[in-house]
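**Sequence, structure tokens**
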Amino acid sequence: MTQHFDLFVIGAGSGGVRAARIAASHGAKVAIAEEYRVGGTCVIRGCVPKKLLVYGAHFAEDLEDCARFGWEIGEKSFDWAKLRDNVAAEVDRLEGLYHQTLESNDVTIFEERARLKGGKEIALASGETVTADTILIAVGARPNMPDIEGIEHGITSNDVFHLPKLPKRVAIAGGGYIANEFAGIFHQFGSKVTVVNRSDQILRGYDESMRERLLHISLTKGIDFKFNSTFKKIEKQDEGSLLLTMDGCDDMEVDAVLFATGRVPNTDELGLDDAGVELGERGAIKVDEYSCTNVDHIFAVGDVTDRIQLTPIAIREGHAFADTRFGGMDRKVDHGCIPSAVFSHPPIASVGMTESEARQAFGNQVKTYTSDFRAMKNVLANRNERSLYKLVVHPLDDRVVGIHMIGPEAPEILQAAAIAVKAGLTKAQFDDTVALHPTMAEELVLMR
């Protein structure tokens, strides 16, 4: 007999797994299908393994700086294969935990591709057809690869975690957070890095002061940038290097070219046409505030909807969907005032309005407060790298409507500060808070 479920989830990433677990906790009979590995982009080939590479990359500067703190380190070397394999082992461990979470909540796992057949039917790659009263699509997004000659020789962020060896020279296409994060990682590991961006600025959408500071620091470190430039052709040479024919800058020869030019929703070959599901721009699934599509029993959460491509958003959307659909609640996700980070070297963290956005909304009377300083550790290490914090304040009611930071541990500091922005606290309330000294975070309450 055909298996029937209350909820069938297609895609076992962060949003899908959370939705499946919460729905099951409400008593629903739940199944989930995943054709690759349980855990999705974040756990398997995104946030988690990338952050581990970021940690590994930071040791390059720490080993340089420690001498000023009295530590004598002998001859040092870096073993890419050891880090790569240790990161892969950690990913395997986390995938196992995700499996355990689903199994402990009695969620049936189909480790194969699933697609919609129309109505309430789902076709599995094995040939089996199952049915479900409610279907949730949580298949995420994939790296965008431009249509240029020789693109098969390029790699994406997915491939970095499996490189057999580090490239001595790497070109990175893009100016967003993925491009800048991997630029810092490769540079710290000793690669010669060139960032190629089709526009004239990096990190569009982040506060201009933070973008300019990161660019200045990156250039000082030795990362090269080619602006208003694009790739025309990639040719693999006999010895294995890649010859890049460029438009807007000189041609170059590298050992690897990484494309970090955005991510597109994974809606191909899902049977969405058969089910009558409406798509929007770039193939994203169109949903309402409850993550419901135009088909009343089909829902979608996470990157496949292209609302905000962040793991915590997918998790919240999945949780809210399950509580609403199976828990008798009325829950929606507030997509405003969401904190974000760029794990560059140094990292950027941001929440709320940029200065430019605030001026457009409230006029030129918007107040800004900044602190431009060297972290204490950098001073003693004789590292001339300055941090920059900025508060953006509403001109009428004194609310802090944006916080933007670049410097060591900025994302860790911002998480708590984001609560204040979300709560609508004022600059006066920041000022009334006693500083925790000596810390970098104290600068947030000392700006006058």
Summary: Residues 308 and 335 are 8 Å apart (CA to CA). The chain has three domains: 4-142+264-326, 151-261, 346-445. The chain has a mean pLDDT of 96. The first helix runs from residue 14 to 25.
